[in-house]
């Protein structure tokens, strides 16, 4: 079964649209890989549980974890880019970032849930292997505790050879492999927890930035309203001035007419 890979070694996008596209693609890959991991986890503890399945599951979940880290870095890069001058473009970019963060958060939730389920299944497999080999009955670690492999396998073999159902070297290797997988899973789960914390910080910071943008937009609206009011006043005064001019012209015309009549009468 193949899984979706990203271009981790390719050129990294630096502009807003490039980062948006890369993040969206990564989130889609995380979602697809999570579905495959879930299918593989369901096979753990069954007849299909083989070393090959273990290897593929380990590689896939670890790769998906690295993909989540890369996406987290790109989202941080988005927040550090210069803001466009246009308030409408700022709002558009904010909507795109919010959409990506919501999709990324949902994908991470599903991925981490599958990781935890895989870790539980691995622990169950270790417990079964330990019980089947009578390891706990011979003074080994108790259930729920990880086996320590600091001691030499030969020492284990010599101690267990005294019992009829001695643990084999193959059993030890199986338990060791499973517990290594558990440690890696738990480490990757902690990585995802850190990504969630980073997301919370980014959402908080962007909220403050948007508050500032909205304040600037409101300020611009106030200036526009003031400008409109001034234009209305100017139009009013202009209209009033024209009315006064018309009245003055009419008065002057009347005076001139009267003077003309008087002069005509005197001359006559």
UniProtKB/TrEMBL annotation:
Transmembrane spans: 246-267
Keyword Glycosyltransferase recorded: no
Record flagged with keyword Acyltransferase: no
Gene3D superfamilies reported for this sequence: 1.20.5.110, 1.20.58.70
GO biological-process terms attached to the record: autophagosome assembly; intracellular protein transport; vesicle docking; vesicle fusion
Keyword set, alphabetical order: Acetylation, Coiled coil, Endosome, Golgi apparatus, Membrane, Phosphoprotein, Protein transport, Transmembrane, Transmembrane helix, Transport
Localization (cell): Early endosome membrane; Endomembrane system; Golgi apparatus membrane; Recycling endosome membrane
Region (Disordered): 77-96, 122-145
GO CC annotation, single: Golgi membrane
Pfam families assigned to the protein according to its UniProt record, in alphabetical order: SNARE, Syntaxin_2
Functional description taken from the UniProt entry: SNARE promoting fusion of transport vesicles with target membranes. Together with SNARE STX6, promotes movement of vesicles from endosomes to the cell membrane, and may therefore function in the endocytic recycling pathway. Through complex formation with GRIP1, GRIA2 and NSG1 controls the intracellular fate of AMPAR and the endosomal sorting of the GRIA2 subunit toward recycling and membrane targeting.
Protein name in the entry: Syntaxin-12
Taxonomy of the source species: Eukaryota, Metazoa, Chordata, Craniata, Vertebrata
């Amino acid at each position: 079964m193949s899984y979706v890979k990203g271009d981790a070694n390719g050129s990294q996008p630096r502009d807003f649209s490039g980062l948006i596209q890369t993040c969206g693609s990564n989130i889609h890959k995380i979602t697809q890989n999570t579905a495959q991991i879930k299918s593989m986890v369901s096979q753990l503890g069954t007849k299909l549980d083989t070393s090959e399945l273990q290897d593929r599951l380990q590689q896939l979940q670890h790769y998906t974890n690295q993909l989540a880290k890369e996406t987290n870095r790109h989202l941080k890069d988005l927040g550090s880019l210069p803001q466009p001058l246009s308030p409408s473009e700022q709002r558009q970019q904010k909507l795109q970032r919010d959409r990506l963060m919501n999709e990324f958060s949902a994908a991470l939730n599903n991925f981490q849930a599958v990781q935890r389920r895989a870790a539980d299944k691995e622990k169950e497999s270790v417990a079964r292997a330990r019980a089947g080999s009578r390891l706990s009955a011979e003074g080994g670690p108790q259930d729920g505790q990880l086996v320590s492999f600091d001691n030499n396998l030969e020492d284990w073999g010599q101690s267990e050879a005294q019992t009829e159902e001695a643990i084999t070297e193959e059993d030890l290797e199986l338990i060791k492999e499973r517990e290594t997988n558990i440690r890696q899973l738990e480490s990757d789960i902690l990585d995802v927890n850190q990504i969630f914390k980073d997301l919370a910080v980014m959402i908080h910071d962007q909220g403050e930035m948007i508050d500032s943008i909205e304040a600037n937009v409101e300020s611009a609206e106030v200036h526009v309203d003031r400008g409109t009011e001034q234009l209305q006043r100017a139009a009013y005064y202009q209209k009033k001035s024209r009315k006064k001019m018309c009245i003055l012209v009419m008065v002057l015309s009347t005076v001139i007419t009267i003077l003309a009549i008087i002069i005509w009468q005197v001359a006559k």
